[in-house]
TrEMBL record:
Belongs to the GINS1/PSF1 family. It comes from Amphora coffeiformis. Its main location: nucleus. Residues 80-134 form the GINS subunit domain. Gene3D superfamilies: 1.20.58.1030. One of its GO terms (biological process) is DNA strand elongation involved in mitotic DNA replication. Transmembrane segments: none annotated. This is GINS subunit domain-containing protein. InterPro entries: GINS_A, GINS_bundle-like_dom_sf, GINS_Psf1. The keyword Membrane does not apply.
Amino acid sequence: MNYGHRGRDLLLELKRARANDHKASSTSVVPPYNDRLVRECLQDLQLHIQALQDQVDAQGGEKPSMNVRPSLVLQNAAIGRNKRCLLAYHKIRADRLTAAYWNNTLLDASSKTNLSPVEEEFFSSYEQICRDYCNMLQLPNPDLRSYGNHPPQPLSKVQVQVLRSTEGPIVLESGSTLAFQKGAVHYLAYSDVEGLLRDGTLALLSTEEEDDLHQSNNIGRV
């Protein structure tokens, strides 16, 4: 019976693949999913569980003797080790897939062949959840990545630029009034400008656009 060695091999495989990617400057998101080794780990896990159950049943409900206890502890430790290795293997791969989304790394045909069917479904579902979140908040840009790691919250401040002048002052959600002139930039609560962003009066500035705007303003002053 294998005492956690196959689980260790799974994690070592991930470690070696990452080291090889760095040496070869590879853009692979994850190495090929090792379905065979995962199945072998699951089989080992079931064997340890069955062996532990058989030893417990053999005691007839009595307290295990000192001769049996070491074997029980060993079987239980092997079960825990296999579980941890399997969970770590899949968690690391899932983390790399979500990182690929936030880094805007496209999964080409070659990368997708490295995924298990469940991982492909996970990545597609993750993308859909992010789109649904944007729709729920009624964000002007349906791509959550355009807001960095966190989308704007109702009370958070955002930088906006006026695309279309308004006819006189507008009463904002907070109760204050403000007149918007085309080309002007304002720093306001997201809840105050949400409707104006949707109708195209304002545009949300990304971090890069803010930097470009500040740079152009500084050049103008020189």
